[in-house]
Design a protein that fits this description.
Layout lengths: L6 E5 L3 H13 L4 E5 L7 H9 L4 E2 L4 H4 L7 H7 L5 H10 L4 E3 L4 E4 L4 H14 L3 E3 L4 E7 L2 E6 L4 E4 L1 E4 L11 H4 L5 E7 L1 E4 L12 E9 L5 E8 L3 E3 L1 H9 L1 H6 L3 E7 L6 H14 L15 H10 L13 H13 E6 L1 E3 L5 E6 L17 E3 L13 H23 L1
Parallel strand pairs: 1-2, 1-10, 2-6, 10-20
Antiparallel strand pairs: 3-5, 4-5, 7-8, 8-9, 11-19, 12-15, 12-18, 13-14, 13-16, 14-15, 16-17
Helix pairs in contact: 1-6, 1-13, 2-6, 10-12
């Protein structure tokens, strides 16, 4: 009796989908693997991430620490990372001739500094193991008939498969998950994560391009805050500290329609109170110097002059001549400047949504649906998202690999 060929269809040609497809094809060479991608581009996020260098993962090699970088999905990932995590990602690419390097902030990139290195590696692997790729093919429904899945495309074509891995990325609208809800799955409503803060018409936006290496950004009325680089843009505030904060606050900020108040401490070494205590010493030390010419906090000069102007302090004024009112206002502005945020801007390179398939419906050890046998999930389609810095890609590699190894084992035995 001739055994019928087993087919795996992977929905989505991004990082998670590709990683699932190439590993499943490699681990079970008798398995026919097909990637179905709705657009005309493969691995589009891989291409643009990290400014076109591809932030593959993050140099965090302790699972308990690694999971703390995910606002949603920590308990789920604690199980998943035991199967495949950072060190495995580094080794996987190294085995295929791609060496990763670690930058000062922990982000890991290919030593070539080109995302094409990662794309070429994955495409080469797909070619090596005969992975078929269908482009411009959008799946609009999946249903199971006996032991087979029937997938219907937007052109009304039907594809059949024994196994399906959905790695279709995040969706900004709940309606985009309808085809999965029809299988019985529940959806955590999607909202944006990793976005910048808009402060329209604020004078600070005239400093666009100015960056502060370390600042603390806090959302007022909450305990949420982040420390790190802050970039001033023509629409407001960006940079790692803001992006990370937006991830942790994603659901809260969606509720208030992105209208909220944030406080920035431009001096991470001081609080308002400690700077008050230090001020007499600074004032005495620089007494005869013009305040616009002497910035003792290593802030960018353009920002320093803006802060002085904000406090009605003239650049030519001497430190010793500051009035009590000017002094108190400058201390307050340096350590607790308040901004009224009105809206957000998507940070395109790192665009992520929180929300997706509820995790209690997925087995973290196999990535298989608990509701539909032989249906798997990988990547951002699940209600898992990380802060900026390579963490979302690490989840993509992990979930793709776990799904692949499970499918390869099942298809070998059945």
């Amino acid at each position: 009796m001739i055994q019928q060929e087993k087919i795996l269809i992977v929905v989505g040609g991004g990082a998670a989908g590709f990683f699932c497809a190439v590993n499943a094809a490699r681990l079970n060479k008798s398995l026919k693997v097909i990637i179905v991608e709705k657009s005309s581009k493969l691995l589009s996020k891989v291409k643009v991430s990290g400014g076109g260098r591809c932030n593959v993962t993050h140099a965090c090699f302790e699972i308990n620490e690694l999971v703390k970088r995910y606002p949603r999905g920590q308990n789920f990932l604690k199980k998943a990372f035991h199967w495949f995590y950072t060190k495995d990602t580094v080794q996987w690419f190294k085995d295929r001739g791609v060496t990763l390097k670690t930058e000062a902030d922990g982000r890991m990139f290919p030593v070539t500094n080109h995302s094409e290195t990662i794309i070429n590696c994955l495409v080469k692997e797909a070619n090596l193991y005969g992975v078929e790729i269908l482009m411009n093919c959008d799946i609009v429904s999946i249903h199971k008939q006996y032991e087979q899945f029937i997938l219907t495309t937007n052109s009304n074509k039907q594809l059949t498969a024994n196994y399906v891995c959905v790695a279709a990325g995040g969706h900004s609208k709940a309606a985009s998950f309808d085809w999965l809800q029809q299988l019985g799955h529940s959806i955590e409503t999607p909202v944006p994560s990793l976005f910048t803060f808009n402060i329209p018409s604020h004078p600070i936006t005239q400093l666009m391009g100015v960056a502060v290496n370390e600042a603390i950004v806090k959302i007022n009325g909450s305990k949420l805050q982040q420390q790190g680089p802050v970039l001033i843009t023509h629409w407001g505030l960006s940079g790692p500290a803001v992006l990370k904060l937006s991830a942790w606050a994603a659901r809260d900020l969606a509720v208030c329609n992105y209208h909220f108040s944030a406080t920035v401490n431009w001096l991470t070494d001081y609080s308002e109170h400690t700077l008050q205590l230090q001020w007499p010493q600074l004032r005495q030390q620089y007494a005869s110097q013009r305040i616009g010419h002497k910035n003792p906090f290593a802030l960018p000069q353009r920002l320093w002059l803006y802060l002085l102007q904000h406090c009605s302090i003239k650049e030519e004024q001497r430190w010793a001549d500051l009035t009590s009112k000017q002094q108190n206002q400058l201390i307050k502005t340096l350590t607790a400047q308040v901004f009224d945020v009105k809206g957000k801007t998507t940070f395109k390179e790192e665009f992520v949504t929180c929300g997706g398939i509820q995790l209690n419906e997925i087995d973290a050890n196999t990535m298989q649906s608990k509701l539909v046998d032989r249906l798997f999930f990988a990547g951002e389609i699940m209600n898992v998202d990380g802060i900026t810095g390579g963490f979302n890609f690490q989840h993509a590699w992990t979930s793709g690999w776990i799904a692949a190894t499970t499918i390869a084992t099942l298809s070998s035995n059945q």
